[in-house]
Each structure stands twice: as C-alpha cells, then as structure tokens.
Specification:
With 91 residues, this protein is mainly β. Helix content is 11%, strand content 55%.
C-alpha cells in the first residue's frame, strides 16, 4: 500500500494489483464509456450474484487546513456548481 496521487497531488491510499483478471477487464470495459455518473452493476461471481457500486466523476479537492478538506464533484455540463460535496473534518 502506498499513497495515491491525483493531478500530481497526494490524495488517499492506493494499492497495486500485479494481475488483472477477466472479471476486472469486463468491469473496466463496461465503465469505459461512462464519463460521469454513479450506479450499480451486476456482477456474477462464483455461483452467486453480487453487485458492484461505482462512481466516476471529476472531483476538485480543496484543503482548508491540516484538519479539514473538501471534495467537490463537478458536472462538466453545469455552470460550475458542484453536484456533490463531501467534507472531511478531523475532530
């Protein structure tokens, strides 16, 4: 595990997979045409049916202080107003 980077800035943790299986490739191919959105995709595992939740969008990260930051999900079709705001505060 290491740090994840987005637009050259450190943001979150990330893990690296050495192998991408058939199920992962199918999922990535299914999400390829999605530019922005959230939903649930059916996934058929070994003998059971599961669901995979996804969210794909452009986020802007604003750091208020070392104890607060916000992520704004931006819609490219709107006038710059965020579609979703997530605030993280350390207490």
């Amino acid at each position: 595990m290491g740090w994840g980077f987005c637009n050259g800035k450190k943001c979150g943790c990330a893990g690296r997979k050495e192998y991408c299986g058939v199920k992962e490739w199918k999922l990535l191919k299914a999400l390829e045409p999605v530019s922005m959105g959230a939903g649930v995709m059916p996934s058929y595992g070994e003998g059971e049916r599961t669901e995979i939740m996804y969210m794909r969008a452009k986020f802007e990260r604003i750091v208020g202080s070392r104890d607060s930051e916000a992520f704004y999900m931006m819609n490219p079709d709107s006038n710059g107003a965020p579609e979703l705001s997530v605030y993280l505060l350390r207490v």
